[in-house]
Automatic annotation (TrEMBL):
Protein name: SHSP domain-containing protein
Transmembrane domains' residue ranges: 280-301
A Pfam family: HSP20
Domain SHSP: 20-94
Source lineage: Eukaryota, Viridiplantae, Streptophyta, Embryophyta, Tracheophyta
Xref: InterPro entries: A-crystallin/Hsp20_dom (IPR002068), HSP20-like_chaperone (IPR008978)
Organism listed in the record: Cuscuta australis
Keyword Hydrolase: no
Biased composition (Low complexity): 89-102
Annotated signal sequence range: none
Keyword terms of this UniProt record: Membrane, Transmembrane, Transmembrane helix
Stretches the record annotates as Disordered: 89-121, 232-256
Gene3D superfamilies to which the protein is assigned, alphabetical: 2.60.40.790
Length: 306
């Protein structure tokens, strides 16, 4: 199964002048099983088609491409396309001479040769890293974490990548040259609103950078300041609501059900348990005083009759 890193939301987008890199996950396939074609159309946008035994995928562009400068590189199960925007609107003769007619007379198809990278080398990153807008990325949302996926040029090492957390709730990604003397890329991404900053992780594998943003666990006993400010509660109201939340948490454990009557009874019971004992001490003291006074009075009456 083939998949493109970032997705087709970038198709026809106003990407800066220069190289447009695309990376496809084709693990499990060999270079001989892949075919890259440039489709020149009289009507509609030109396309680049990637074909294999079990898939076919096309990328449409709003601008003409220079077919003579479309490079395809296969390495470690990934197919990287480097597409260069055509500076002129006229088509080159080299493209026409190498094109073969398709079933549709409105289309001309040019096959792009796929080269294979061997060993631990890497393609030239000078053109594919300089412009931040050309870095392709996607965000995968899950219940426990969000993952930022970036397709990077081949040959980068983890020592060349640096991540910085900024106070304005964003993540800055820096990519340095091989000698770490200058920055070739600087791009910022906003942090998810519910991410746990101290647990952010990043890993690099097969020229793909994964940045994982674990989400904070929701605690029903915690009231967010923003929600309190929006509701207009006072400090006393906030304390009371926190106390009620604590009671409801205990009630759930004690009652073990959601019946409204039982919950009310349990809540009243908890309030009685938490009530200060001074009120009941005062009542008990009054009762004792009445008993003592009554006893003394009875004693004097008995003595008088004697």
């Amino acid at each position: 199964m083939v998949s493109i890193i970032k997705g087709e939301s970038v198709v026809g987008a106003g990407i800066s002048k220069g190289t447009i890199p695309f990376k496809f996950d084709v693990r499990g396939l060999r270079k001989e099983e892949l075919k890259v074609e440039y489709i020149q159309r009289r009507r509609g946008p030109n396309k680049v088609r990637i074909r294999g035994e079990r898939f076919e995928q096309e990328i449409a562009f709003s601008e003409d491409l220079d077919a003579g400068d479309i490079h395809a590189l296969f390495h470690n199960g990934f197919l990287t396309l480097k597409l260069v925007k055509n500076k002129t609107s006229n088509n080159t003769t080299a493209r026409t001479s190498s094109s073969s007619s398709s079933n549709d007379d409105d289309e001309q198809v040019t096959e792009i040769k796929i080269s294979e990278e061997r060993g631990g080398g890497g393609i030239d990153t000078k053109h594919t890293v300089m412009i931040a807008e050309q870095i392709l990325y996607d965000v995968v949302h899950r219940e426990d974490a969000d993952t930022l996926i970036l397709a990077l040029p081949s040959g980068l090492m983890k020592e060349q990548i640096k991540l910085q957390l900024l106070r304005k709730e964003s993540l800055r990604i820096l990519i340095f040259s091989h000698h770490s003397k200058w920055i070739t890329l600087q791009k910022e991404f906003p942090l998810p609103p519910d991410c746990h900053k101290n647990s952010i992780k990043a890993k690099l594998g097969s020229d793909i950078l994964y940045v994982i943003f674990p989400k904070k666990r929701n605690d029903p006993t915690t009231v967010k300041p923003a929600a309190v400010a929006a509701s207009g509660e006072t400090t006393g109201g906030l304390r009371k609501r926190r106390r009620n939340n604590e009671e409801e948490k205990v009630n759930t454990e004690v009652v073990g059900g959601d019946d409204d009557d039982e919950e009310i009874k349990a809540r009243k019971l908890m309030k009685l348990r938490r009530q200060p004992p001074m009120k009941w001490l005062n009542v008990a003291a009054a009762v004792v005083a009445l008993v003592v006074v009554g006893g003394v009075a009875m004693y004097h009456i008995c003595q008088h009759h004697k």
